[in-house]
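INTERNAL AUDIT FORM
Audit reference: QA-55
Scope: verify that the stored structure record matches its stored sequence.
Auditor: D.O.
Record contents follow.
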Amino acid sequence: MAALQFPCTIFKTRNRMDDHSASDMCCGDLTEAQLKTHYGLSYISDRADPWTLTRRTAFDSPRSRFCCNTRPNGEKITRQQCAAILFDEFRYLSRQFSRYGPYQYMIEKMITHMQYGNGASFRDGVLDRALKEQILKDYTDNSSRLRVKNVLKANIDWEKKCYPAEKKYRIRNAISKGKLPKFNRLQDNFNGMGITVHDTWATHITLKSLQIANDRYQAVVHYKVQDHFGLDVEDISKFRFNHFLFFRIWFVLQRFDQFRFKPFMTNMETTIEISGGRYDV
């Protein structure tokens, strides 16, 4: 019986890493007419109108009792000025989703990366720490960490002090039936992680090493997670997205053929240790 060799990839999602063909990675592919007609995006911003390239005032807002009265056109601005105004409003509106904690400033940092990064991938140690915390603090039955722990204990060949290569599939099956690390918990709606990452696109989990001695084991497991900082048409078609100016601005900055600000890949990685014993309950 062959022993499993390390490092060993024990899980991969069907979604590929670095998949630039994904629907939420589209950029600059929609016209003004399409954005207005198909997605109801006539009113985008309280600060600037990207269709007429004019500044807005508080009286222009649909929420104002003075809205829709005959008023002179606002101050004309360039397309570059309009984009800068929209990005400032984008950052300002993000605060409603990011109110406390060590991750609350990440969304503004990522919006700025969209503005100036030209589609380059994004990585930050703060996101890596958030990923590690999410994995270590998940004690539910669906936890990928606990599922790996249970499979190792049940399938290690304790006499030969190894994990049989032929039973590798059991680790993948256990993870597949659980829940991968995501940021869709209640607290993520307010701590900044729900709006910066929320769901994830692709996950790779690697068993880097496995030490077995004295009826105990210690495993080192590496997580590589990737998300897309971009919106697709399915997102903006949902009321809970379309209702907020935050998402309207995001979608127009990304998809309007006169702006074309590129979405990007958000990369996160972390390494954890899992340990246990042959006779653990």
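Auditor finding: record pair retrieved intact. Residues 79-94 form the longest helix (16 residues).
Action required: none
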